[in-house]
Every structure is written in C-alpha cells, then in structure tokens.
Design goal:
The complex is a heterodimer of chains A (536) and B (325). Chain A is built from 16 helices and 19 strands. Chain A has 536 residues and is of the alpha+beta class. Chain A has a domain of 232 residues: Dipeptide-binding Protein, domain 3. In chain A, strands 1, 8, 9, 10, 11, 12, 13, 16 and 17 form a 9-stranded mixed β-sheet that branches. A 4-stranded antiparallel β-sheet of chain A has the order 4-5-7-6, with no helix packed on it. Chain A has a two-stranded antiparallel ribbon with strand order 2-3. In chain A, strand 2 and strand 3 form a beta hairpin. Chain B has 325 residues and is mainly α. Chain B folds into 2 domains: 71 residues, no CATH class; 197 residues, Orthogonal Bundle (MetI-like fold), CATH 1.10.3720.10. Chain B has a two-stranded antiparallel sheet. Classes of the chains: A alpha+beta (536), B mainly alpha (325). The interface between A and B is large, with 60 and 57 residues.
C-alpha cells in the first residue's frame, strides 16, 4: 500500500487547501477496522461490538480511557460485607424512548445475559458470580455473590442495561439458576430495529446496514447533558489502504489503526495522528515442563526452559528498544510487566529487563548450556502489529548468545488452534487485559493451569509456581482495593522475577483524523464518538 | 435439443454435489471457529457452551449429515456472528454486487466492442495497434493497484468522486438500486470502471480476433460482391457473427465478476458479497463461507447452462451436432 500512495502524494500536495477545510459538520463519520456484527449488546463479547454498544446502551459502571472503573448508571458502590455489594442508582435517568430507568431494568438485563440464543461468545463470565439481587429501596440495589468478588463493579461495566418494560419483563424475579416472569427474551436480530435497541446512552440507533454502515443520532433525553454530535456514522473498512484513502478523500472524519507505514503521508496532508498506549502486551512463552518441548534440540534430553536462568538469559538477550525502534517504527513501549503503568496493580518502578548479552551468555553457561541449543519460535503473522518481524528480530538476538532460533509463522486461526494442541515449545503471542487490572494477565498467563477452576487458561507453557498461585487467589478474594493492589504488585514482581512470562512491549494504538477534531486515546483500543470532539 | 438440455442439467447437479462435499470438508482445514469467536478469557465451561450453541460439539460426519439434510431443504445454516440464516445474510448483500457487476459489464461492452471492432477492421493502422497494445495494460495491471490509483487521482487529489462505500439506495420496481440517483452513481463509477477494465481488455481482444476472422469469410466477400454498403456489412454481418465468442466469454466472466469482485469490493469498501466473504473468512464464520461458495457454484453452473443454451440458439451447428457426439 505504501509504495502505491507515495508518488502521487508527494507529486502535488495542495497544502493550502488544508487550511480551507470546512467547519466541522454536525455529523461524525468513523472508519472502523472491524465492523460490529450485531446491535444486541449481550450477543457477542467482542471488542467492536462492545465499543459500538456503549453509544446506545450503558452499564451500572463504565471503564474510562485508562480502564479505571467509573460511575455510569450507578453513582456509587461499596462492599457491605465479604460477599455483598451495594450500588446506588442514578436518579432521573430515562431510556431514549422516555421510560424511566429503574432497578428492575438491571435485574432484567442480568437475567437475559445467559439466555441469548446462538451467542458465539457470551457475557456470562461477568454475571456468573451473582447469587442474589435485592432492591431495598428504589435507588439501591444489593448484589450477593457466591464468593468474595472484588471485580464485580469492573465486571458490571461489561453488562449493558436493557429496558425491561420494552420486552414485557417488568415483573422479573431474579434467581441464580434462572429468572422468573421475565417474559420472552428478545432475539439478537430484533435489535437491528431502532424501536427495540433502546438504551440510556448518548446516541440512538437510526439504522444498521451490515457490511455498510451503522447510523446513530443524538439522544435528546440523555442524562449526561449535551451530546457533541447530532449524527454518528460508523463504517466498517477492514482494508487498511482503503481506510486511509477514505480519510484522505474526507469520506470519513476518523479512522482506526492506520498502518505505521502511512503515518508520514497522513501527516503531510494535514491530518492528525493520536497514539495511545494499549493494554496489550506482546510476550514470549516457553514450555517449562519436565519433558523436552517440541522444537528444542541439542540439550541432552534436558528441558532448558525449566531453568529460570535460561528464561532470564532469553529476556536479557533481547534488545527491546531496538525492536521498538527498527521493527515497530517507534510505535510501542518496552514492557517490564504484563500491564502498563498506571493500570491497576502495576508498579511505577517496574523497568523492562535491560539488554545485557554478556550476562545472558554467563547465565546460559551457569545453567549448563555454554554452547546454547536449538529451538523453534512459533508466531502468528497477522494477529499483532508486525508480529512476524518481531519474532525474526528476537530470533537473531537469541542467536547472538548461542540459542540458535528458527521462526515458524502462520495465520492466527491456525496458530491458536495448534497452540491449544501443545505443538509449541517456544512462542510469541499477545494478551490484552479486558478488565484492565493485573489479576487478569497473571491469572491467564502465569497461574497453574486448571480449566475447571478457570485458572491459567492461556498458561499453555506448563508453568506452575505455588507461591504465585496463592497470591493470585488471595487477590481474587480481597475486596479492599488498596490491599488488593498491594497483593497484585507483589504477585507481579514474583512473576517477573521468575520469568513466568517474558514481556517484550506494549502495543500502541494509533488513530488518524481531520485536523479540526481531537480524540482521547483509550487503553482498551475502543473508538467512541464520545471521545471525539471538535477542537478549537 | 431436449436430450441436450437433460444431459447438461444432469451434469450440473453432479457438479453441485461434488462441490458441496469438497467445500464442507475443506472448511475444517482453515481452523476452529471457537478459537476466533470466543473471548480470550473464556473458560472451559464457556467454550463448551459456545460449541453446544453453534452445533460444533458434534462429530464431523454428523455435522456434514446435518448440513446435507438441511441443504436439500434449502437451508444452508445460520451465520455464527449474525445469528441469522447464512443465505439471508448473503442475499441481503447480493443486490449491491449484482448492480456493480452489471454496470461493470455494460462498461466493458461499451468500451470493448467498438474498440475491438475498430482494431479488427484496421489491424495494421496506428489506431488499431494502439488499441491492442493499450489493452495489454488492462490485463497486466493488478486490479487493486488500478483501484488505488483511481482513488488517489479521482477521490484524494481531484475530489470528484468518493473513495469508498455505496450511495443512497432507491427502490426501483422492488429492487434496491443506487445508480438511479447522481449520488449513487458517483459511488459506483470508480469500482465499476476498476472491475470492468480487465473484462474490457478481454472483450477488445476477442472482438478484434472475431472481426478479423469474420472479415475473411466467404459470406462477407459475397455480401460485398452483392453490393451491400460497408456500414451494413459491419453492423449486421460482422457484428452479429463476432458476438458469438464475446457472449460466451462475457457470460462466464459475469459469473466471476459477481462471485469474485472480492478485491474491488475490499479496496472500495463496497458492501457487497465479496467483502462479506473476506470478513467471514477472517471471522471463520463457517456457515456463511460454505453458503457463499455453494451459491457461487450454483450461479456458475446456471450461467454456464444458460450460455450453452444461448450458444445453441445462436449457432445451429451446436445443437445439431451434439446428439451424435
């Protein structure tokens, strides 16, 4: 794409025209990389759908641009015991069709979550903890959880609130094993109808044309005051070249994730680029089990990765700054933890491992591999930004300390299927912490794998550290925020010191947009019309 | 003619059956949809629930049996990501693609036939040679590159036409069309011209060869001897006879324009079936991929059948010789 664009662009750039860009119209058009597939906010737990629904539907809480939990339909909340949470509801909120928002709507919405027909990925994990709901008065709602659930307020930010009255669910009664009197739950496809897709959010649905566009209009009844845009149009343009062209031709006002290669050209035409740190860490995993893992040879029947000194040597052999500079075009941040500061549970002083090939060679020798060994590094080639090239760079750096590394790359769907089958001994992948706090990556990547208990689901590297497991479990049942943060910081330090996962860098998300706009980057990579304003 | 018809239809059904099997089995090689659909935080309980909801927990032969049984009743499954019948999802996008393909077809005939005939009548003239050498460009330049150059020139630099998308839809006789309004036509011009260039080049070359061939035939010489005007010879005798191969090829190419406008549709973010196919492959939305390929097969088979029949109608030798051979 880059080669195609350059010649014409430099041939004649009418920079003067840029100054004459018309005043912002009341309509905002956004070019999305991935199109939302349904208007049902409970249908598919997928980033584009979750971002889209926030325009129309709100939740009790919301996650801000740094993924910290903030009030939304609830004004405040506090734990009233180990397993109870009390939420105070916002007063004077109405749905876009005029019906008032009440506690019944919350109960109805939580009841519907597990009952969505044909859902390809449901929201049940966010509501599963809830064992009972009580409504002592009109503006108070009390949740009882099966076990201490410190993340309940965070989880509820993912549960969109529907209007019970719109679906005949006014008399719904909550039951942990199924609700009663809920009426007939609406089908997901019904939500393509604007009279069904009724929420409390700043925008209302006008039309949903799959493959083409989603049109929204301002909700005049919005409780949060003035809404910036009269109309918002969301268009799915998956092809990166077409997306950039649509912006340059001013068909759209904002685009998601322009390719790094096009940055110069976008800027030279007077458009702006905003970048924000994401919650996605790119990491290396090594199989640290007993047996020699697939792809490893020259080790006399020993698994080198079982020795923490070898894992440390790998980390120290990698020049993270060089990768960011040369492979990522400067658009990434070196990682010393699994989440970037200042997300919940991170430490400000967690530095990335320094590049020290001499120490790495010593460590290898101490571990009994003075001549190194051979290994295959597996990587997807279309999932993360420049993923295959990062893996190539890592392979070259490891070769310099004697770990002869070859790279095997493949398309994401094949990569993840094969990883699940245990085909790899050494691989590169990424993790975006949906909840934006440290318990999430620690639990998924470093806790001992137990699919029934739901721990270590992506720990396919046979890593197990009882001390770390105990801390993670403690954090998961500690309701007090300050205490939990301290535990998570300790757990993260232990995991990093033991190289339970070798972090490389955090991805940075770019947006490109017209010069008369301003945009707030979000850690969760969502593109929201609420975060885009006309700049002065 | 009847025997010919029955035989051709029998062959067509066989092709569809073989393709159904191949398509269904090969879709398993791409990957497991649950790996793509499920959230990364999903635990085993949730993964099992997804597999149950989407029918992916059954063994493959059982899934294939269900697919065949439903397909025979005209049901090609439900889209995983849209929760709607796959055929419905595809048909919804079909008018956009059909419109694009037909407009592109008209462009390629309007460009290709006159230029081809001119080049065929005067093969050694400067004009004839120029037309033929320019048509090589139409073949050799990749579609996406032409599309991007058009976008850069007409949308980004000159700002005459929009870079992407489809214009406002107007209902004409129940068909959702866009080319009837100026705004709709503006959106259609760039993708349609991009899609038509390759076909236009093809038409030029076939028309040129056909014209040269026909001009040497005895009946043309006879028509000249009879004293018919040059115009009448070209517009009646030459045009009619050289159109036979053009119709055959365009028939087949129409099929490929409808089914595989994939590249053009992605470059122009045009909401047709091609873009749907790419999106569905990225999401591993198996029912839509299978339904799409099955519908493509059916369209090709039907177009081939119609072309064969048309051909038989235009050229009596085909239907006369067929029963013997």
């Amino acid at each position: 794409m880059k080669k195609v664009f350059r010649p014409l662009v430099f041939a004649a750039v009418p920079l003067a025209l840029m100054a004459a860009t018309p005043v912002v119209a009341a309509t905002l058009t956004i070019g999305l990389a991935l199109e939302p597939t349904s208007m049902d906010p409970h249908f598919h737990n997928l980033a584009p759908n979750n971002a889209m629904r926030q325009h129309i539907f709100e939740s009790l809480t919301q996650s801000d641009e740094n993924q910290l939990t903030q009030p939304s339909l609830a004004v405040s909340w506090e734990p009233t015991g180990d397993t109870t949470w009390e939420f105070k509801l916002r007063e004077g909120v109405t749905f876009s069709n005029g019906t008032p928002f009440t506690a019944t709507d919350v109960i109805y919405s939580i009841c519907r979550v597990p009952r969505v027909e044909g859902s390809p990925s449901s929201f049940t994990s966010f509501t599963r903890d809830i064992a009972g709901i009580e409504v002592p008065d009109e503006t108070t709602i009390v949740f009882t959880t099966r076990a201490p659930s410190p993340l309940l307020p965070t989880n509820l930010a993912s549960v969109a609130i529907l209007s019970a009255e719109a679906f005949g669910g006014e008399n719904v009664v909550f039951g942990a094993d199924g609700c009663e009197n809920a009426g007939t739950y609406p089908a997901s496809t019904d939500f393509a109808d604007p009279s069904v897709a009724v929420g409390t959010g700043p925008y209302k649905l006008v039309s949903f044309n799959p493959g083409d566009r989603i049109t929204l209009t301002r909700n005049e009844n919005y409780w949060g005051g003035d809404v910036e845009w009269e109309n918002v149009i969301l268009r799915g343009i998956p092809n990166p070249g077409a997306r950039v062209a649509a912006l340059l031709a001013e068909d759209v006002d904002v685009i998601e994730t322009p390719p790094i290669q096009d940055f110069d050209q976008i800027r030279s035409r007077g458009f702006k680029i905003e970048q924000g740190l994401s919650n996605r860490v790119i990491y290396l995993h090594v199989d640290s089990g007993e047996a020699v893992p697939p792809g490893v040879s020259g080790t006399d029947g020993r698994n080198p990765f079982a020795d923490v000194r070898v894992r440390e040597a790998i980390s120290k052999a990698i020049n993270r700054e060089a990768i960011i500079d040369r492979v990522m075009g400067g658009v990434a941040v070196a990682a010393g933890e699994l989440l970037p500061w200042p997300l919940f549970g991170t430490s400000e002083d967690a530095e990335p491992d320094a590049f020290d090939p001499d120490r790495a060679r010593e460590l290898l020798a101490e571990a009994g591999f003075p001549d190194g060994f051979s290994v295959t590094l597996f990587t997807p080639n279309d999932r993360y930004i420049n993923d295959e090239r990062v893996a190539q760079a890592v392979a070259q750096m490891l070769a310099r300390i004697g770990i002869r590394t070859s790279v095997d790359s493949m398309t994401a769907s094949t990569f993840f299927s094969r990883r699940g089958q245990g085909d790899y001994g050494f691989w590169l992948a990424g993790w975006g912490a949906a909840s934006g706090e440290m318990a999430n990556p620690l639990l998924a990547l470093t806790a001992t794998r137990d699919t029934d208990a739901g721990t270590g689901l992506t720990n396919l590297q046979n890593y197990s550290n009882p001390e770390l497991d105990a801390l993670i479990a403690e954090a998961r049942r500690t309701v007090d925020d300050d205490a939990r943060r301290a535990i998570l910081q300790r757990a993260s330090k232990i995991a990093m010191d033991d190289y339970a996962t070798i972090p490389l860098h955090f991805e940075v998300t770019p947006w490109a947009f017209k010069p008369n706009l301003s945009l707030t980057p979000r850690v969760d990579q969502y593109t929201l019309a609420m975060g885009i304003t006309a700049a002065n | 003619m009847l025997v010919y018809l029955i035989r051709r239809i029998g062959q067509s059904i066989l092709v569809v059956a073989v393709m159904a099997t191949l398509v269904f089995l090969s879709i398993y090689a791409i990957g497991n949809p649950i790996d793509i659909l499920a959230s990364q935080d999903a635990d085993q309980q949730e993964l099992d629930a997804i597999a149950r909801r989407l029918g992916l927990d059954r063994p493959m032969y059982e899934q294939f049996g269900i697919f065949v049984w439903n397909a025979l009743q005209g049901d090609l499954g439900r889209s995983f990501v849209y929760a709607r019948p796959a055929v419905e999802v595809i048909l919804e996008r079909m008018p956009a693609t059909l419109e694009l393909a037909f407009v592109a077809l008209v462009f390629s005939i309007l460009i290709g036939v006159p230029l081809g005939v001119i080049a065929g009548l005067k093969p050694d003239s400067f004009l004839g040679r120029s037309i033929m050498s320019t048509s090589i460009l139409g073949f050799s330049l990749p579609n996406f590159w032409i599309g991007l150059m058009f976008i850069l020139l007409f949308a980004v630099q000159l700002r005459w036409l929009p870079a992407s998308g489809r214009g406002p839809v107007t209902e004409v006789l129940g068909l959702p069309l866009t080319f009837v309004t100026w705004e709709g036509l503006r959106h259609l011009i760039l993708p349609a011209v991009t899609l038509s260039l390759y076909k236009a080049s093809l038409v030029i070359r076939i028309a040129q060869a056909g014209t040269r061939d026909v001009m040497l035939q005895d009946y043309i010489r006879f028509a000249r001897a009879k004293g018919l005007s040059h115009q009448r010879i070209v517009f009646v005798h030459v045009l009619k006879n050289m159109m036979i191969p053009v119709v055959t090829v365009l028939g087949l190419e129409l099929g490929s324009m409808i089914a595989f406008a994939v590249v053009t549709e992605s470059v122009f973010a045009y909401p047709g079936m091609g873009k749907l196919l790419i999106d569905s492959i990225n999401r591993l939305d198996r029912p839509v991929i299978v339904a799409y390929l099955m519908m493509t097969v059916v369209i090709f088979v039907i177009i081939n059948l119609v072309v064969d029949l048309l051909y038989a109608a235009i050229d009596p030798r085909v239907r006369l010789s067929e029963p013997k051979g």
